[in-house]
Amino acid sequence: MSVADVKKSAQERMIKSLETLRADLAKVRTGRAHTGILDHVQVEYYGSPTALTQVANVTLIDARTIGVQPFEKKMAATIEKAIRDADLGLNPSSQGDMIRVPTPPLTEERRKEMVKLVKSEAEDAKIAVRNIRRDANEGMKKLVKDKAISEDDERRGTDEVQKLTDKFIVDIDKMVAEKEKEVLTV
């Protein structure tokens, strides 16, 4: 193992942390409807909990309405109940074999709660990135202890990992600023 291997491993893990944050932020509701809101909804399907996207087609009807088209007609009532029980503040209604899920506009108080949630997610991502940095630095120390690299190489490697960490922290801050702006826009 070399300094480059440690750095590459740290970078890959940091990228995964960033992708996880991006996925988590996509679930945070803004003023507009988006299908990601229903991604974690579980529906009882033949006795086992199943993701909503596995039993229905989820689409956007307009800016404020999500359409859910069950693959099996008899699943409509179950899907409707699952969406109601998911504690998303949504009230679906059936129209024939299509379920319409209107997303109510967010109140100012709810927007502020969403911003707090976004900041909490960002802080978790920053902690993950810093933990990866710590692991990489420990890996460098171990290489020095095993006499695989010199202390100068360790210092250079540690500096490179720190620059990488700083870059990812800035990326996280940018993502959070964009999401905050999106959430606060009326």
From TrEMBL:
Record localization: Cytoplasm
Residue ranges of every copy of the Ribosome recycling factor domain listed in the record: 22-184
Family indicated by similarity: Belongs to the RRF family.
Function: Responsible for the release of ribosomes from messenger RNA at the termination of protein biosynthesis. May increase the efficiency of translation by recycling ribosomes from one round of translation to another.
Primary localisation category: cytoplasm
GO function term, MF aspect, one: ribosomal large subunit binding
InterPro entries documented for this protein: Ribosome_recyc_fac, Ribosome_recyc_fac_dom, RRF_sf
The protein's name: Ribosome-recycling factor
Pfam families: RRF
Any GO BP annotation: cytoplasmic translational termination
Gene Ontology cellular component list: cytosol
Domain of life: Bacteria
Gene name of the encoded protein: frr
Keywords: Cytoplasm, Protein biosynthesis
